[in-house]
């Protein structure tokens, strides 16, 4: 199993709860991670004993969006480098190189593209 198998198609960052949600086709989003480090982030915005909480919260959300974007870029690159998936008439899927016959192992339908 690869991390992308767990994450799904993309990641969304939720500013309200600082969660990263994995989104897979036809399923409800699910929590894959949480952005932590509030104290470390707040310390970046401390001056003379006062923390600008609003700026710290805005930066935390900006960081969360940046991390989600980076993960999504990685997921997209992985999709480009994966072997092609052939559709067969019955809509079952198989990855190129796994099956060595010209019919679906599930129902016997002819495989398109071979």
Describe the protein's architecture and organization.
Helices cover 36% and strands 22% of the residues. The chain is elongated and about 75 Å long. Strand 1 and strand 2 form a beta hairpin. It has helices spanning 3-7, 38-44, 53-81; strands at 10-14, 19-23, 30-34, 46-47, 50-51, 85-87, 93-95. A three-stranded antiparallel beta sheet has the order 1-2-3. A two-stranded antiparallel sheet has the order 4-5. By secondary structure, the protein is an alpha+beta fold.
Largest sheet: 3 strands, antiparallel
Count of DSSP H/I helices = 3
Stretches with pLDDT under 50, minimum 5 residues? 96-100
- Mean pLDDT over the residues: 81
Topology order in helix (H) and strand (E) letters: HEEEHEEHEE
Shape: elongated
Hey, roughly how much beta strand do the residues contain?
15-25%
């Amino acid at each position: 199993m690869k991390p992308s198998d767990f994450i799904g198609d993309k990641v969304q960052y939720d500013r309200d709860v600082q969660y990263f949600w994995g989104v897979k086709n036809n399923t409800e989003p699910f929590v894959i991670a949480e952005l932590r480090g509030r104290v470390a982030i707040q310390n970046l915005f401390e001056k003379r004993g006062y923390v600008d909480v609003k700026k710290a919260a805005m930066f935390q959300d900006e960081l969360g969006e940046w991390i989600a974007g980076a993960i999504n870029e990685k997921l997209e690159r992985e999709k480009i480098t994966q072997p092609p998936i052939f559709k067969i008439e019955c809509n079952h899927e198989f990855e190129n190189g796994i099956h060595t016959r010209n019919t679906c192992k599930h129902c016997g339908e002819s495989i398109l593209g071979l």
